[in-house]
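2024-03-11 09:14:02 DEBUG pipeline.ingest accepted 1 chain
2024-03-11 09:14:02 DEBUG pipeline.ingest length=466
2024-03-11 09:14:03 DEBUG pipeline.predict start
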Amino acid sequence: MAAASDEITDTAAPGELGTAPHTGSLSRRMMMIAAAWIVVLLLAGGLALDRTLTSLVTNNFDDQLEYMLTAMVGSAEIGPEGEVFFNRPLGDQRFLEPNSGLYWQIRGEGHEDFPSRSLWDRSLEIDGDHFDSEPHIHDSDQFLNEPLRIAERSIRLPGSETQWWFTVAASRSELNAQISQIRSILFWSFIVLGLGLFLMAALQSWYGLSPLRRIRAAIQRMRTKGTNRVDDPLPLEVQPLVQELNGLLAHSEKQAEEARTHAGNLAHALKTPLTVVMNAATARANDLPDTVIREAAVMRRQVDHHLARARAVGRRAVGHARTEVFSSAEAVRRAVSRLYPNARLDLDGNREALVAIERQDLDEILGNLVENAAKYGGGSVFVTVDTDREGKLCTIWVEDDGMGIPNEERERIFDRGARLDTGKPGTGLGLAIVRDVAEIYGGGVELGESEDLGGLMVKLMLPRSG
C-alpha cells in the first residue's frame, strides 16, 4: 500500500519534463509518524498492563500466604513445657512432603524451631531483631536454585512471654510461571495489535491520499488530452487546492489568449504600413523615402504601444508594486508644462495615495491623459487624486476646458488609431494605451463631462496598494 501511495511524489519520466526536487514521500512520512506513535503507545500500554497484571497475580499469591499464616496463628497453642504446637493440622498436603515448595516454621527465643516436614533438614532464616505485628512479605534467595516468597509475623501467644516468629514460605516458581505466561500473552497480543494498527494506518494513508493521485491523473489528462479543468469530485480538504489550480489554469489560459490577441493585433497594425511601403517600392514611387519614413514612424508607434502593454503584463505577473500617485502626477505635470508652456496645469487631492502599479506604467498613463488634456483642451487642466480615500480602487480625475467628446463617440475613442481631431499630430493610441494598461492591473477608465471646466473628464481607477 505504501508503495502504491509513493507514486504521489513521482515526477515526470526522464526526458519529458526533467526531475523536480522533492522532500521525500508524503505517505512514507505519514507511515513513519503512525508507526512511531503505535510503538510508543503500545509500549507504554504494554508496560502499564504488565505491571497491573503482575501486581494482581503477586497480590493473589501473597493473599494465599497470608491466609496460611493466619491459619498457623489460629491453630497454635503453648504446651506444658512452653513449647508451641498446633491443635489441628494445616490443610495443605504439601506441608508434609519434603522439598515440596511450601514451608512453614515457628521460631521462639530459647526454644527449638518448630518446622514443617516439607523443610526436611533445612530451616528458614529469620531476622529476629524486630517485631512485625502485621504480616511482612518479601522475597528471599536463601535456598539454592529455589527463590522463595516469604510471609512472616511476630506474635506473643496467650500463656507465653516468648516472642514467636511465624513464617510461611512458598517457592516463586509457580508465581514466576504465571507472570511469564501473562507476559507471553501480552507480548504476542500487542504484536498482533501493532501489526493490525500499522496495516490500518497504511490503508488510511493509501485511501486518504487517493485524491492527490486523482488530481495527478487529472493534470496528466490535461497535458495529454487537452482538458483545461479538474472537474473530479474531491473531498472538502482538497477542494481549495483544486479551485486554486483551476484558477491558475484559467489565468494561464487568459494570458495565452491575451498573448495571441496581442500578437494578432500587432500583426494587423503592421500589415497596412508594410503594404504601403511594398506598393510604393514596387511602383518605384517618387516619394518612396517620405513614404518609408512616415510608415516606419507609424509602425514604431504601434510597436511601442504593444511593448508597453507587454511590459505591463510582465510587471503585473512579478508582484504588487507600490507607487505614490501624487509624485508621479507632479513629474508628469513638469514634463507636460515644458511641452505646452501656455497651458495651466493644477494638481490637488490626496498626497498619500498609493496604487499597486509600477511607476513607469503610471507615468505613461498619466502622461497620455494630461498631454491629451493640454493638447486638445482650451489651456486649463485640472488633476484631482483620490478625494474619498475609500474602497479598493484609487480614483484620479483629469479634466480640461476643451470641446469634450460626445457621448456616442466616447466608446469608439478607445479604439486604436481613433482620433476626433485630425488637425493635430498624434497616433490615436493614447487612450487605448491608458485603457489597456489600467485593465491589465485590474483598474479601468471612464469618460465624462467636467462640471467645473466644461470639457472632457477622464476618470481613471487603479487598485490601491495594501
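2024-03-11 09:14:41 DEBUG pipeline.report Confidence is low (pLDDT under 50) at residues 1-17, 416-429.
2024-03-11 09:14:41 DEBUG pipeline.predict end
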